[in-house]
Design a protein that fits this description.
This protein is mainly α and 130 residues long. It is built from five helices and no strands.
Amino acid sequence: MIGHLFSSFLQSKFKGKESGVKMNAYIWLTMAILFEVFGSSMLKVSNGFKRLVPAIGVIVGMGFAFYCLSIALKTLPLGNAYAIWAGLGTALITLVGVVFWREKLNFKKVAGLICIITGVVLLRLANLGH
């Protein structure tokens, strides 16, 4: 229901515009990333699904993440969308770990994140002409 209302709102804003369709897809992809980061964060808090409210947060977050990703995939190429989703999700959840769980951020983690983000950018550039 909420997804349908949000989709209707976005379609009314971008109706008839080719760039708007792509923008709509990237908004859905962004929402998928944010819901995935929320769901992953709740995994830590759920203590192995022993705490009910965070466990429900995992299910809701991941459910909405995959729903939003599926809407984005109606327009975006699978490889690009998944690379962006996984790459930015990984980077954001790493930052959540550092900020909220005081996980250490060392050179190897930073180098790995740079490699992931570079890979996402290269995949995106590879499909610009198509």
